[in-house]
């Protein structure tokens, strides 16, 4: 919703009320209206430079797709999974090739394949995020785990799909 993505599988059926919702989000947050009443710790880092964290990865950035934005330009939908030590990450941050945090991702699905490989029931470890096409590649993802302040890298940064238009 934030990026104005237009596509049959996404927002094709959205009415003009969508633009009104986008303008209303700051008011809804100020009024502490759920689910707009908070920002994730990853959202709080948007626009900041993210130093390349050390350590082993705690998941993967698996897919990246380009979409046309209704107001012009392009957007990316990225997805993957993240967990470490039987714990799902709190949120995911998407970073451009210059190391700037461009958007946050959230956990939206169970991943039976990841659970089977880990031989554990993990809950929601599959994430998705949407971001405007960045000016620099590749797109990378990092996870933030509950109770921790350091970001953990997710494997497999992705090239920007051919034909995606940067702002």
Describe the structure concisely.
By secondary structure, the chain is mostly beta strands. Helix content is 13%, strand content 34%. It contains two helices and nine strands.
Notable features of this structure?
single chain, 167 residues, mainly beta, nine-stranded antiparallel beta sheet
Would you kindly provide a written description of the structure presented here, covering whatever features stand out?
This protein has helices spanning 17-30, 112-118; strands at residues 5-6, 59-69, 74-84, 87-88, 91-95, 101-110, 124-132, 140-144, 152-153. The protein is globular, with a radius of gyration of 16 Å. Mean pLDDT is 79; it is low at 1-15. The longest helix is centred in the N-terminal third of the chain and has 14 residues, at 17-30. It is built from 2 helices and 9 strands; from the N terminus they run E-H-E-E-E-E-E-H-E-E-E. It has a domain at 41-153: Immunoglobulin-like.
Topology:
Layout: E1 5-6, H1 17-30, E2 59-69, E3 74-84, E4 87-88, E5 91-95, E6 101-110, H2 112-118, E7 124-132, E8 140-144, E9 152-153
Antiparallel strand pairs: 1-2, 2-3, 3-4, 3-7, 5-6, 5-8, 6-7, 8-9
Number of helical segments with 4 or more residues:
2
- Indicate the low-confidence ranges by residue numbers: 1-15
Molecular shape: globular
Sheet bearing the most strands, described? 9 strands, antiparallel
What is the third-level CATH name, the topology of the domain at 41-153?
Answer: Immunoglobulin-like
Q: What string gives the helices and strands in order?
A: EHEEEEEHEEE
Average of pLDDT = 79
The first-level CATH class of the domain at 41-153 is given as Mainly Beta
Helix percentage: 10-25%
Rg, alpha carbons: 16 Å
Quantity of strands, as a count = 9
Give the N-terminus to C-terminus distance in angstroms: 18 Å
Roughly what fraction of the amino acids lie in strands?
25-35%
Structure class? mainly beta
């Amino acid at each position: 919703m934030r990026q104005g993505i237009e596509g049959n599988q996404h927002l094709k059926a959205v009415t003009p009320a969508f633009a009104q919702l986008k303008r209303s989000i700051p008011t809804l947050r100020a009024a502490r209206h759920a689910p707009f009443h908070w920002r994730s710790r990853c959202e709080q880092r948007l626009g900041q430079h993210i130093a390349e964290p050390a350590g082993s990865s705690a998941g993967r950035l698996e897919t990246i797709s380009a979409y046309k934005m209704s107001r012009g330009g392009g957007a990316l939908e990225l997805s993957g999974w993240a967990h470490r030590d039987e714990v799902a990450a709190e949120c995911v941050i998407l970073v451009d090739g210059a190391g700037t945090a461009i958007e946050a991702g959230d956990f939206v699905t169970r991943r039976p394949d990841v659970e089977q490989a880990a031989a554990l029931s993990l809950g929601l470890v599959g994430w998705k995020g949407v971001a405007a096409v960045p000016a620099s590649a590749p797109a990378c993802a990092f996870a933030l785990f509950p109770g921790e302040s350091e970001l953990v890298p997710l494997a497999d940064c992705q090239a920007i799909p051919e034909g995606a238009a940067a702002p």
